[in-house]
Amino acid sequence: MPETGKKFFITTPLYRADSRPHIGHAYTALAADVLARHIRARGTEVFFQTGADGHGEDAARTAAGRGSRPGEWAEEISADFERAWKLLGVNYDRFVRTTDPDIERGVRDAFGRMLESGDIYPGRYEGAYCPLCDDFFREGELAEGGLCPVHKKKPEPAEGGVYLFRLSKYGKALLEHYAANPGFLAPAGRAGAIAGLVGAGLRDIPVSRRAPALGVPVPSDPDHTIHSRFGALLGYLAGAGWNAGGGTRDFLSAWPPDAQLVGEEAFRLHAVTWPAALMSLGLPLPARVYAHGRWTMEGGGKHGARGGAVSPAEAIKEYGADTLRYFLFRETPFGLDGHFSAAALARRYDSELAVGLGGLFSRVIELAGEHLDSRLPAKPEEASAKTFARLRAIDADIAADIEALAFGPALDRVHGAVEELNRGIEAVKPRALAAKDPAALKSFLNDMVWCLRLVAGWVYPFMPDASARMQMLMSIGGAETGGVEPQRAPPLFPRKP
Ligand SMILES: [Zn+2]
User: Do the Cβ atoms of 271 and 42 come closer than 8 Å?
Assistant: First the structure.
């Protein structure tokens, strides 16, 4: 947790406008949102930044293929992302468009500062350039036959005269930083490969293109444009309020980022180039850069940031955003590759949400209505709230899991608690107990109501809408005297025919 007064700063990539939003983009944004909601709910102010990058050759080509101008396409795709995030409940604070004037200015100024210091210099580059990746490759990095390793297509020879970033200068400092900050790159499996790569020696990298129409002009050399991938890194700074004067008050209260989430294909850029650029600018590095895995889709290939288009809107049409959010983080450990299948989603929905969590809430609300004189208890009764006391002890574990981006283990704990509560109700046989010992049943239900209030808080980062409905049903926040009637409501997760 950051020190007092500093905002907890979370970023997703500034997504490249070479495709409409799909599950790969959504996964990063949802993970960032889960973390952001958790941190906010615990009382720390959050700055959550996401966005889209309308610059670059791939965006321009996609625009041309659709018969629109790059600017129009960037607008359209940004609006698409913002709509998708709304639909998914991604509650960001800033949506950065790299084509916004304040972002372009910040990117140009940061680049200019690195030019002045000599860390960016005009030079020559021998290598290949894949316009579909909008990225440069050296000979050793190409696939067999000299093809782009991603697209397996013949790249173009890279133009000779470019601006280069003196990355080679920062190899030692990067290795020292990795060693001194073991949590900086995560998960650990991916981090090891990065240290190996840096240890093998870094070369200076091209950070411009001779393509004036495609982005922010290089200061004092308008024939060159800042390469979009490098520009998007500097866009993190500009979006947060960095400027040539040092930065806005917002920037000073948020920088450095506490968690920067990226897909695995962007890890190298964020684990090597990005911290080196920050070192060059004399700025503090993020606390953590985390690369998650990819989702494979049913009947299709990989859908990372460079994959095909499965719109989040399609995926949530049938089950709602909460269910998709729950499924993505429950099905596969964050950090590993996942496989998306409608059957797996339906199975989890039926057994864990409709029957498990939803069933638990319906039963307790109904029993509370019948046996608690239509009054929800305002305080857990110390003597009888044994289950509540036990569950409350895992609250800190769930928080620690989420803060470590271990979303799967957090949901395992929630699921385990829900199962335990359902088993507890089966064992007590409430209707029989009501006849035999009404006081014991009341005491049991008091305990259950408080357990459910706890569960409603736990699921909030993952399923904000369902949590809000649970909290309303359990009259959280409005029941200081316990004088609130349990609300009858439709099931949280209706059974599917
Ligand atoms: Zn490529």
Answer: no
User: Can you give the pTM of this predicted structure?
Assistant: 0.92
pLDDT digit string (tens) for 79-113? 999 999 999 999 999 999 999 999 999 999 999 99
Is there a shared CATH topology between the 8-125+160-317 domain and the 342-473 domain?
no
Distance 460 CA to ligand 1 centre (A): 40
Spacing, Cα 57 to ligand 1 middle (Å): 12
Q: In degrees rounded to 5, what are phi and psi of residue 286?
A: -60, 155
Tokens of 82: 């913002």
Distance of CA 62 from the midpoint of ligand 1 (Å):
14
In this structure, whether the domain defined by 8-125+160-317 belongs to CATH 3.40.50.620 is answered with yes
What is the CA(226)–ligand 1 centre distance, in A?
19
| 342-473: CATH class | mainly alpha
CA of 133 to the centre of ligand 1 (A): 4
Query: Ligand 1 mean position to 66 CA, how many Å?
Result: 20
Name residue, tokens 């290795």. Answer: 175
3-class secondary structure, 52: strand
Ligand 1 geometric centre to CA of 147 (Å): 8
Alpha helices in 372-478 (DSSP H): 386-392, 395-403, 407-428, 430-436, 438-459, 464-473
Domain boundaries, the chain: 8-125+160-317, 342-473
Phi-psi group of 282: left, alpha or beta (phi > 0 → left; psi -120 to 50 → alpha; rest → beta): left
| 228-237, 302-311, 446-455: least confident range | 302-311
Going from the Cα of 155 to the center of ligand 1, the distance in angstroms, rounded, reads 7
